[in-house]
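Re: beginner question about structure tokens

> Can someone show what the tokenized structure looks like for a real chain? I only ever see the sequence side.

Sure, here's an example I had lying around. Input first:
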Amino acid sequence: MMDRPNFIVLHADQLRYDCTGAAQRRSGIYTPYIDSIGYQGAHFSACYAACPLCIPQRLSLLSGQSPQRHGIFSNLGIPYLPLETTLPAQMRRSGYLTALIGRTMHTYPSNFSYGFEYYLPGDPSSDRKDTTDAFFCDLRAHTPQTAGGYYGGGAFNNSRAAAPFHLPDDFHQTKWATNRALEFLNARDASRPFLLFLGYYAPHAPHNPPAEFFTRYYQRTDLDSPAISDFDVPPCNSGNTISGYIDLSEEEQRVLRAGYYGNIAFMDSQIGRILEKAVRIPNTYIIFTSDHGELLGDHYLYQKNRPYEGAVHVPLVIMGPGIPDCSTIDAPVAWHDLTSTILDLAGLPIPSSMDGRSMKTLLLQGADASWREYLHGECTHTFFAANRTRPADSRRNLYYEAGSQYLTDGKTKYIWHITSGTEQLFDVQNDWNEAHDLAREEKYESVLAMWRARLIRELADRPEGYSDGKRLIAGRPPRKLSPRMEALAGQRRSEGLKIAYEYGGAPAKSPDIRQALQLLV
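And the corresponding structure tokens:
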């Protein structure tokens, strides 16, 4: 059994592709340890979130299923999902020691392991923060009550407000998770191969890096500004601090980038500690990636849940046995492919319940003639605390679209907004800020038609009725859950269980959004 490889999966939350140094796209980014994984192995230039939200993405990695197959398209957590199999369960049955530390797979309840044998959640999004989450238990036990806990510095979950961490950095989730992972690696049963998932909450808000990392970026004046295009409609102001529709002042930009970039740099420093240990463990694959990105004010948007590059394009670097160094792989891949890849590299069968594809041939040989031409992504949009932020003018406003579908091969991206049927086409290889919408240009009509035909085929059998096989049909309401998952959610409600993040009232009933929707058609 010991000839089987080990796996360390380092997964961040809300890290954009262009916020790693290896991408060479943004000024001021400093991630030498993350970059080194790609330099010593493979750097994937076209890894995309098939649904740019935490719960759908993390369920894809856990189950090996695309969102279309597992059926969750929004941040709704259904307790006790009856999954056919999971990556940790499959590997554990084959003798692997499976471990998860830190940020979980965002399943509910968060203490239900879905196959991880060693399970130590330490997660600011946990539903057990007040009871059994190990990270918060440590905070309560070892910090003064007057410190205000993890959020005592004034930076909160989902808020764009940022501040230096107010506690010793041992109590930052990034360092806490790293310390616990090193303890696991030192104490593990060395006679068994292992799979370790080490989950960082960074750079997801709270934007609260230690002071030296915050100050490093706050003092700079050369950092990139949000990408704004001529089709973007600004809001009249930035609303409250968790609004997804914002127009950042210069100072707000400085503070947000200091917190976001600082969290990335601090995380990178801690990944260096993991690498120093991991490179001494023979036959080990090391994977770094993120579930989705962060829009950072691009297109007047904050957080994720939109089809633009800041939200859907994510880093993926892998090093390990047999992977040539300095490899760049431009094939379009997604998180559900990672699950099949790990099983394949471990020499284990890929269950029929998984629809992700193994990237083993891409990794070891650099090419795979049978690889997909493009990737399909989608999201049902949320209007989290944003329906009180009005647009500054009456132009057609894509912000108020109820959902979107997109296709990309890593070079071109096609977006279809489902409320109005508006199409967009971008050359994301050269115009990664998506400043120029090629769908407006006559010379791209044939290219636009080709991508439209692809999406018509992709959506032809979907229950939403987006496509009849001949055309795309706009105006259909998006689903947060597939019919199968909606039935399961109903069953769980009848059993008295809570559907996590289930809020009342559809956003479209809000007066401001209803008025704005009229501008779409």
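Each token stands for a local structural state, so reading them left to right follows the chain. The first strand starts at residue 6 and ends at 13.
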